[in-house]
Design goal:
Blueprint (H helix, E strand, L loop, with lengths): L2 H6 L1 H13 L2 H25 L8 H9 L4 H17 L5 H26 L8 H39 L3 H30 L11 H24 L3 H5 L3 H33 L1
């Protein structure tokens, strides 16, 4: 039975809902939202500290967030990041990098626990090994994120040069414009594949994580854009929560993102279990 047929199976969807409810994915998503919030600004600060060595600027980083983040949240991120940069001391940069990796890895550690519960396996790796893996995955995510930022800079130059060799420089402009819409989802898909493959304490075939990664990528994009539209047009969180409105919106966005991420892991785990009995 193919993966697509399994996912479309009515019984599979019912089992997914039951399995997700049993594993308390809403509670786990709330934990993820908390750790994501703790990790966000140290992670952005670490990336910004690399800007002098890269052909990108702060606006390039914020432009990536603008594609999905609610406007109210984006304004809060911009203002807080500006305050952090203005009050930062360069002598503390080395310590800041270590603190960033440790803080950001907590979010990855929470993801590992959620995926272990999805696969119904216990964490048998030592605390040092588990945290080291979380740090490595965090570094990998930073690398992929930087690659996503650098790709438009170097990708356009390299692509234009290659097309020019074949006398197709005019056609490249149209192709590159179309490709720019594909790059962000593709980078996100690669991140999800890496998380679903390495994070659980279970040997998994690479192709076995693709269904959940695809659904998580599409689901996260749809939910993020939908939530952003709702906040911009119907949500009045500033009226209810005052100056905390931006934080509430950010936490809700992280919460929904956590649910999508865990659901993708649940789908992979259930497909893997079902194939054993097919």
């Amino acid at each position: 039975m193919g993966n697509s047929k399994i996912i479309r199976d009515k019984n599979f969807i019912i089992s997914l809902i039951k399995h997700s409810t049993y594993n308390d994915i809403t509670g786990l998503a709330a934990q993820l939202a908390y750790f994501f919030l703790l990790s966000l600004f140290p992670l952005l600060l670490f990336i910004v500290s690399l800007l002098p060595y890269l052909p990108i600027d702060l606006d390039d980083i914020l432009n990536v967030l603008r594609n999905f983040a609610p406007k109210q949240t984006l304004k809060m991120i911009e203002s807080n990041l500006a305050d952090i940069l203005n009050n930062r001391r360069t002598s503390l940069l080395s310590f800041g990098i270590i603190a960033t990796l440790w803080s950001a890895s907590k979010g990855m550690n929470a993801i590992t626990k959620a995926l272990n519960r999805a696969y119904e396996v216990k964490e048998t790796r030592s605390a040092i090994v588990a945290r080291a893996m979380s740090v490595l995955l965090t570094l990998a995510m930073i690398f992929v994120f930087l690659l996503a930022l650098l790709l438009p800079v170097f990708g356009e130059y390299i692509g234009f040069y290659i097309f020019k060799l074949f006398g197709l420089s005019e056609q490249f402009t149209h192709i590159w414009t179309a490709l720019r819409w594909v790059i962000s989802p593709l980078i996100l898909f690669v991140v999800f594949v890496g998380i679903y493959y390495f994070a659980p304490n279970k040997k998994i075939k690479c192709l076995a994580v693709f269904p959940g990664a695809v659904i998580a990528t599409v689901g996260w994009a749809v939910v993020s854009l939908g939530f952003s539209f709702y906040v911009s047009n119907f949500g009045h969180y500033s009226t209810t929560y005052g100056s905390l409105g931006g934080i509430i919106v950010l936490m809700l966005w992280f919460y929904f993102s956590g649910i999508i991420l865990i659901v993708g892991g649940e789908i992979n785990a259930m497909i893997s279990a079902k194939k054993k009995f097919c």
